[in-house]
Amino acid sequence: MEKQYLEDLKVGDKWISREQVINSDDIKAFAKDYDPQPFHLDEAAAKDTFFAGLAASGWQTASITMRLMVETIPIATGLIGAGGQISWPRPTRPGDSLHMVAEVIEIKPSRSKPDRGIVTVQIDTLNQEGEAVQTFTCNMLAFRRSNR
Question: Which residues of the chain have pLDDT under 70?
Fold first, then answer.
């Protein structure tokens, strides 16, 4: 896939990633290091929680999404975050096969720094049923080719 600069991007550009399967061992290993709560660590303990079963940390879902974004979104100068809004409408479960769909929804060239702009991308992480497990509206810095 050819790398793209700010002037190459347009509203409506869309990318779809490969799938990534997550299992209970993955969920527990991530939770042990980064989000050690019972609903991420232990199936029995998780049954009596809000999630009613083992669920991945939202931050693990975000980490998987980031990997898929880096592999899929062809912004030439890298994926440089400039803020955003994230939500997890349903839990990621053991056995889920995740993929992300990203679509450019806005492009704002900078007025003060003509070599760059902000690209807003709607990034939805979906499970094998097509259900959103994460929604992320992400602002990314993108540079113009002419200044590289």
Answer: 147-148
